[in-house]
Write the structure tokens for this entry.
Amino acid sequence: MNDAHSIMADKELLLAIETSCDETAAALVKVEAGRLRLVSNVVATQHEFHERFGGIVPEIAARRHAEVLQAIIAEALERAGAGFADLNAVAVVNGPGLIGSLVVGVAAAKAIALAREIPLIGVNHLEAHIYSAFLPEAGEPPNFPLLALIASGGHTHLVLMSEHGRFEVVGRTRDDAAGEAFDKAGKLLGLEYPGGPALAALADSTKETGVEFPIADIQPPKPPQRAWDFSFSGTKTALARHVRELSVEQVEKQKTALAAGFQSAVVRALVERTFSAAEELEVESLVVVGGVACNQRLRDELSARAREVRIGLHIPPPWLCTDNAAMVASAAYHKVTAKTSAGAGTPALQVPPDRLDLDCDSSLPLRSWG
């Protein structure tokens, strides 16, 4: 198999696979004139299969991945005008995520790597989200040091990066992830599945501030430690209590105000914690990724605050914020080509390809490279 230095030779293709939750995705990238180029990107969603259950059913998600992944990879190759013989490497998310879903993607990637005798690159789902901001389709790449807010259905993290592949988690949710809180709030209000986007759409239909809900005031466990963690369960409980105290007719009448108030509270918590950390850590760039980064209210408030404090804000387009394989390809590419902080001419981070015994880990921690 190729070594780390030859994996991304000019004009050779890397296939990336993403099956960590309920999206089945494949993408192809290549390097042209020293720059990464996205050649194809295919995503299949499973909303219709989970809708009647009001949430993702892990067994159904895994079975659906097994049913469609081969076709998704074939479509990605067809759109690229390529075949398996054109692949130079294969990358796959091996955690965190639903274990059954992860197994499907990793097994497929191993089979391709073995059959074609090409390198296999395991990618953490969280680092993939961060590296969506480094795709050309996301605009100019962020500068280091940067702070990344990863806000999705399963994760809410603040990650400090001093350079490529150096991750330090400086904040995280202590209970619900932001996207999970949005989805549960939407369900409480009787909105269609998935509840988060439906709640945001309802909230954005009014210019009123809505019902006021509390946000958690998290104190550091021990000074001088900093308090950049999040907590959304209290806000969700406040909404549930409010709904219980109203009649069905009253809830229907106040539904828009309740949605607007809940969204406002979650967005306020995300913005306040993120900028508190960004300013104290004196970062040059702020990266905001994950499914919740599609929320327009959040994007607007982050943009306004970033202009005030003059910090570079990088939020990829919505199609790169939800789960996809393009972000996996970006992370894999940088993993094997990134330079150390010493600059040009220094060795790469020396991240070798993974062995074919690469394992899945549903709670895989975010670790620095090298």
